[in-house]
Every structure is written in structure tokens, then in C-alpha cells.
What does this fold into?
Amino acid sequence: MNKKKHRVRNFIVLPAIGLLAAGVIAGIAGGRGPTSAPSSAPAAADSRAASPQPATPYVYTPPSYPAIPDFTGTDSIVFEITGSGTGMVTYSSDSNFSIAQETGVDLPWSKTIEFEKAAIRPVTINAQHTAGAGAIGCRITINGKVAVENSSSGQYAVVSCTTS
It folds into this structure.
């Protein structure tokens, strides 16, 4: 069993040594070793030969990024529910994702809230007819621009609007 281990080790070690020696010999023969032949290039005849030019310094140019949006101040959010009769309304009530609910409101209904500006702030409104059938709609306007609107109809219809 001991001879078997030596055979396996010799089978791996001896070829590795041979490859290493071949690499050293090839390096010497390729001119990278101490026995490489002298260069056949003529020596500079003029002592005023061109001296190496200084390298051009590297100038770092940082990437340009879009301007950071201004999140100071407030956004004017207008919630609107259209329809007739009475309804129940649930809506985002402030910038901290709080909600408020009003029941038995007369339709059409609207509420304006000033929210702190934010990078990402979904706002939502949901409404339902509480007496009978009919059409009901919702709309969210942010700073005068309609962000989302939706409508529904039927017995105790429900409508929902959410910004992204």
C-alpha cells in the first residue's frame, strides 16, 4: 500500500516538475532570461537624442448626475368623489400615511390637503355608495394635475384611486 501512494504522488509530482522546467527553458530561450542575446538595435549616435516625454497627467472627470429634486415645501392634494346620494369616503390624510374616514357624506364630495413633498408618496381614496345604486367616481389631483381617476356603478358601488 505504501508503494501505491508513492506511485500516485510520483505520477502527479514528476510531470509538474517537468512542466515547470520546460517553462523556465522557454523563458530563457525567448529572451526573458539572463542568457538572452544582446539587442541588435544601433546605439544612439547623437547625445541629443529625444528624451522621454512626460506622460500627460490623468484628469478625473466625475460622472454627471441629474439634479436632486427639491423636497421642501408642500404639495396640494385634492381628493374628489363624484356621484349623487350619500357615501362613505376613506382617504390618505397626511404625509405620514395616516388615513381618515368620513361616513354619510353628501356626494359630490371633495377635500384639499397640503402634504409635505416626498420622493415617493402614494395617496389613496376609496368611496362607496351607502344608499342604493348609481355611478360613483374618484379623482386625485396633485398641484393642479390629475394624477389618477376612476369610476364604478351599481348597487352599493365602490371606487378606488391610488397614485403610484
The beta strands are 74-83, 86-92, 99-106, 109-116, 124-129, 133-142, 145-155, 158-162. The first helix runs from residue 2 to 32. The mean pLDDT is 80.
